[in-house]
Amino acid sequence: MMEKGESVMLAASPEQSFCLNTFGYSQTEPGHTYGPAVRSYYLIHFIISGKGTFQCGTQNYNLHSGQGFLIVPEVQTRYESNADEPWSYVWIGFNGKQAVEIVKTLGLSVKNPIFSCQEAAKLKDCVKKMLQRSSVALADRYYCWSKFFEFISIIATAQQEHLPQNDENTYVAQAAAYIQNHIHEPITVQEIALYLNMNRSYLSTLFSRYMKLPPHDYIKLCRLTRARHLLESTVLPIASIANSCGYERSESLVRAFRKQYGMSPSAYRKLR
To answer: Where is pLDDT greater, at 1 or 139?
Structure first.
């Protein structure tokens, strides 16, 4: 059985901080299979339409549009398109030293590889735009990186919306809301704990349990997400953007942005 679509394979090294290995889109024929196979990098598939099955180790999952699955390096997997409603999907493969942390932010693992997201059009558009800018030129490489992080951000947001609702998660939700509402201020984890009238260490433990990253990393992620939005949608100077994202100095934004995305805010703005 065949599949139709478009894809890109890139030369990449796991020794890099972050690297894209592959991305693409496929419309499969009924009963199309891939594997059993073992990958050397992380691979995220998201189903745009149709149905299929995903096998990871000894576990089998029946999946449909609006769901996705993670393939972990060195783990045998196999997937098969439904005979009556063959699936189409987009995928992104990545590796590098940051890859483990990226996967953690999504709450995914070899034991929990399935996720749901209602933003199929946005995820498909990210990959479509990456395919349109897939040359070896440095500007196109940076552009694809920015679209990759947008892809991950969309899934991460969807994962947060599916957190179980209980008393502990209520504290986490309140903490996350406080961060988002005060992201333009130089907030600290201690300040959030005082607002919730709880122990700082306990808040950090709860936050890491449910959000899959500590609160200070979540604050950093929110700041950088806001900075990206302002870089894309305004002509504000970098110093003003830094101030509106809670950074006391523009140098702090530049350093954090470069560490996360591999380029300066000014370079990112030129790609838009």
So the answer is: 139
Q: Which of 76, 162, 158, 63 is nearest to 120 (CA)?
A: 158
Q: Which tokens sit at 82?
A: 């439904």
User: ∠ CA 7-10-14 to the nearest 5 degrees?
Assistant: 130
Query: From CA 231, how far away is CA 217, in angstroms rounded?
Result: 21
Dihedral of CA atoms 204, 259, 122, 139 in degrees, nearest 10, equals 180
Contact 203, 193 (CB under 8 A): yes
Average of per-residue pLDDT values in the chain: 86
The percentage of the chain sitting over the pLDDT mark of 90, rounded to a whole number, equals: 46
For residue 253, the model assigns a pLDDT of: 95
- Rounded Cα gap, residues 59 and 114, in angstroms: 11
Query: Residue 246 region, left (φ>0) first, then alpha (ψ -120 to 50), else beta?
Result: left
Residues in the chain: 272
Single pTM value for the model: 0.62
Q: What is the pLDDT of residue 130?
A: 93
Structural domains in the chain? 3-140 (2.60.120.10), 167-271 (1.10.10.60)
Contact 1, 31 (CB under 8 A): yes
